[in-house]
Amino acid sequence: MPAGGELAPEVLARRLRAGDPVSVLDVRDRPEFEAWHVDGRAVTARHVPHVKFIAAGARGDATEPLPDDLPEPIVVVCGRGKASAEVARDLADAGVDAVNLAGGMDAWAETYLAEPLVRDDDVTVIQYQRPSSGCLAHLVVADGPDGREAAVVDPLRAFADRYVADAAARDASLRYAVDTHVHADHVSGVRAVREATDGDAAVVLPAGATDRGLAFDASLLSDGDAFRVGDVDIRAIHAPGHTTELTCLRLRRPDREDADTLLTGDALFLRGVGRPDLEAGDDGARDLAATAYDTLHDRLLALPVDTRVAPGHFADLADARADDYVAPLARIADLEVCALDRAAFVDRIAGELPPRPANFERIVATNLGTESMDDEEAFEAELGPNNCAVE
């Protein structure tokens, strides 16, 4: 990429996923930067407002505001990619190896990668990755006696049409749109998928969502319930802790006892577990943390060690194992948090928690159907890190 040119957000995401070091210069106003910016273990991010570069250019030295500790090459970022394009061009003209993030943070939020987790002749599982927030969704496609069928798990409303198109591209009938729990960090796409399939896709939620005030029609999954997508059996495992209704989904194939995949939602991540305070608040966090301990040890870690865990979020782009976010249960069982006793576990995950996801109360209400947002409001409401994990 020539200096002064543009870097596509998909390319940036793949570089960060690979763990390649990236320097980011964010030229938005400080409150915007502090609320949300490109971040991660592989990122060196610095903030210098655009106005400082304008003033420096007027004085004849566009590089004057550039931090000394920001190694080249540098990716310059703003909200929509216009102010950052000016800065990147001026820096390049002054001899700095700098490129602009095309489309800015808006384009970063719209970036959605898809990678295969399972790709056999008769079964495909696609993992969708949203680099800006760490949200993961999964499309299960499988052959069956009545043709090829599909289900999407934890879909985002902003990408509802994408799931429908991807199922159609695989000659599959999209039969189910499933949420593992009532999400607090993004607007759910289950109803949008149903609309996009003209009602063919059934909306499926955990049965406990009714206790939280579910206000629209849905099929409900209780612990042990199952449904089939082609020849794949998808069975519900009630996994409370992050929320009371959270339910993991165990994908099993009758011909492959060694090929179980567990879609864990926010119950279990590659480096931690779900925070316990978004439903019950600070007062109820310790009780839900204790419940999460029971879920972890009595239900999830009791599964076969070669079960492949595919979570609903990742904490850092560089957490990827190759191109996806999945790991055998045996590897996750080695996490420090899994070795804690009950009291220490509760203290760890109900103690000092990160800031709650932006607009989480309104997002929860929208996902229950008690409030509504248009597409623009939804896009704005879910910008920023999800903050659903305790690592």
Automatic annotation (TrEMBL):
Example of a GO MF term: sulfur dioxygenase activity
Protein name (record): MBL fold metallo-hydrolase
Pfam families linked to this entry: Lactamase_B, Rhodanese
Top-rank taxon, per record: Archaea
Keywords for this protein: Hydrolase, Metal-binding
CDD domains named in the record: POD-like_MBL-fold
InterPro entries on file: Metallo-B-lactamas, Mito_Persulfide_Diox, POD-like_MBL-fold, Rhodanese-like_dom, Rhodanese-like_dom_sf, RibonucZ/Hydroxyglut_hydro
Domain called Rhodanese: residue spans: 18-116
Keyword Metal-binding applies: yes
GO biological process: glutathione metabolic process; hydrogen sulfide metabolic process
